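Entry type: protein chain
Record version: 2
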Amino acid sequence: MDNLLKYPESTVVNRVVPKTMFYKFMEVNPRMKTRFVNDVVNITWLYKLAASTLNVTDTENMKEIEVFVVNLKQPDCPTDLFSFIDTNMPHHIVFVLVHDNHAMLLINYKDRADDTHTKFKITQTFTSPWVSSENLHLQIDGLSLPLIYDNFVAQISGIGEHKAGAMADIVALKKQIATAETELQTLQKRMRREPQFDRQMQMNKEVKAKRKELEKLKTKLQNLK
């Protein structure tokens, strides 16, 4: 694996991680083991972004950002495999998924699940579109690892420009917006199928209220950018 993202040579690890390592150090259930076997060709630890490899600062909660390149057997590998890895890894991760000379980026925005700093909970998963491998781009932007990580999230998710330190709130709002949009679509479908006029009128009120809620959430999101 070459220097795919053109990062400083000091960050390059370029080491294949045997899939058996994940079986050994993570609680892999039979379904997840099947994912590794059926969907993944190999995994390469390509970059280590840290204070020791870049001229940046770290924090107690973020000592390293790892970049893993995952060669896939099929391009439609379920993302739960990467959520599983990310939940169990002690560092923050960017996944580069590769198939047939094309690549995409995947990042799980996550927080510490407890004070042990060994488990994470994932707030939301973001992916980029598939592009040809030579056109893959992810810029290192920031003087600290948390800023670099937030800017990775911004690039991969399409969030783009945002206020410094606002990423956690942005991700939480995007999750609320996605939930509200799904609820709105469900209400609209139920209203169209409802045969009783009085129930239609009541559900129409609910639809209007949900739209107002959605607009407020979107306004909050815009104010963080």
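Comment: Helices lie at 19-25, 30-39, 80-88, 145-157, 167-193, 197-223.
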